[in-house]
Amino acid sequence: MKYRIFFVGLISLLLQSAGLANTLQEAFSEHFLMGTVWHGQPVEGHKKNHFLEKEKAITAIEFNTITAENCMKPAALQPEEGAFSFAESDAMMAYAQAQDLVVVGHTLVWKNATPDWFFLDKHGAQVSREVLITRLKTHIRTVVEHYRGRIEYWDVVNEAIDTRWLPKQKRFEAFYKPTPWLEIIGPEYIEIAYRAAHEADPSVKLLYNDYGLHNEAKLDFTLAMIADLKSRGVQIYGLGYQGHLFIDQPALVEIERVLSKAQQAQIPLHITELDVSVLPNAWKHRAASVEDRFALAAEFNPYADGVPEEILALQAKRYSELFKLLVKYSDNVERVTFWGVWDGNSWRDYRPMLGRTDYPLLIGRNFERKPAYAAVLQVVAQQEKKD
Ligand code: G3I
User: Quick one: which of 25, 135, 204, 258 could link to 64 by a disulfide (CB 3.0–4.6 Å)?
Assistant: First the structure.
């Protein structure tokens, strides 16, 4: 313990002498909020999550905003109809309040993490449009009212848009993702959701959150949807670009297009779930069986025993390039939230393929600040030199 305190102190001294800020939130205080997620409460005596205390200590130092990774999803808040359960999310709110963190609620309407009961009657048949609208409004009203005045932003609708490749026309086409929400209510479920959230807390800022916006068809469709909702008086405030990136994809110009088109459209942008995986993209194998995964491990899980320094250097370069862009567009970028605190607790290890070892964040598996951490702080230091 003593050694760790000494080590952290030494790093702080070195950063100061290099003219760098001491923490992420301090470095970007002139630009945007810096955030991370709430992974959950440590359970007394539970070996697996003793590190949650460390996560909380790091969160309090490095970040000024926090998002619920899982505890505010419908499956967590209303596992059965009418049986709302706020214990975990209330614990997160208490922590956030004590640490003076801006809170982002995630998420009210999604295809995943939503129990089947929403869509079924007691005989297991699909419910009518009217019943589902009532359930949607009740869920949103109850949850948003519970946290009225204490949550700054809500991800209201999450991941409602998909794309397909049109081979003859050699282009992508975007469309509303087929989900029970769309099938039973139609695309109006989106408008209904935003109106219900605004009614429940008129001061909360409402976001639409999605991944893959570097696909231009998806980006244009999304911006048009937001513009259309706004033109009809729906209180939708901004766009969340998740930012689950890889070292080599998507291309920087495609990311810049998201930032610049959102700015042109005057829609505030949030980077809501940032991480940069160092592993090969395995989404096409997401349904792989255990045996298949074993066979694929050499290709898709190459750093199970440790990550080479040159890979961490590439990741640092990628983060640096990304943050240069974010600073360039910081007039319209309000927040950058990482989808995790440190590499040892990230969804990347279990999705899309269970049992991998990834290193996607700025803080490593021994709670050390990685090369990417220094590279990100360096972006602000260089910017200040130019000014
Ligand atoms: O905690 C255990 C983990 O230790 C174990 O290795 C893993 C094996 O499956 O299970 C874990 O439980 C998982 C749980 O959340 C964590 O509490 C569940 O399987 C898993 O289904 C669930 O995953 C979450 C996922 O959303 C689905 O709700 C991830 O943690 C969470 O990071 C992820 O977050 C989403 C955003 O909400 C929306 N955008 C994409 C993003 C990443 O998928």
Answer: 25
